[in-house]
Amino acid sequence: MKKQILLFAFLSFGLFTACDSDDDSPEEPQQINENLVGTWYIDAMIVEGEEIPYNDHEDCGKDYVEFNEDGTYRQVDIWGCEEDVDAEGTYTANENSISLTLTDSEMVVLDIVTLNSETLLVEGMEDFDEDGEEEVVQQRFTRE
């Protein structure tokens, strides 16, 4: 069974659609969902309805992602009780999705299931158990 290090499947699990951003169209104003702004801590993964609670190095703190008002974000992992910036870039968000642009122009689109003042729940398809078939995978984040 997979080690239960969840480490923000935002980017590492391929839950979400990624594509290169070679579009030369003029930039549109950034769309920011105000509910998203702030710090979100990983809480659990839900795979095909089965919840897998976050339980990795909690004595040092939980991994988290920060969404800033200026349209930037950073994903921070806690390793050996020290923060490690795993990813950073820009984002846009509406009521249905979050689009993250990485520094190498790759874009990751996350489907939003729930977003309120306390909970962020995103969903996608992933071959979580590595059996060749994709499962519905959700990740839940909280404000703490």
Automatic annotation (TrEMBL):
Q: Which residues form the Lipocalin-like domain?
A: 36-120
State the source organism's domain of life.
Bacteria
Instruction: Provide the alphabetized UniProt keywords.
Output: Signal
Q: Record's PROSITE patterns?
A: PROKAR_LIPOPROTEIN (PS51257)
One Pfam family it belongs to: Lipocalin_4
* The keyword Phosphoprotein appears for this protein: no
Please name the InterPro entries in this protein's record.
Answer: Lipocalin-like (IPR024311)
Q: Where is the signal peptide?
A: 1-18
- The molecule here is called Lipocalin-like domain-containing protein
Give the species this sequence originates from: Salegentibacter salegens
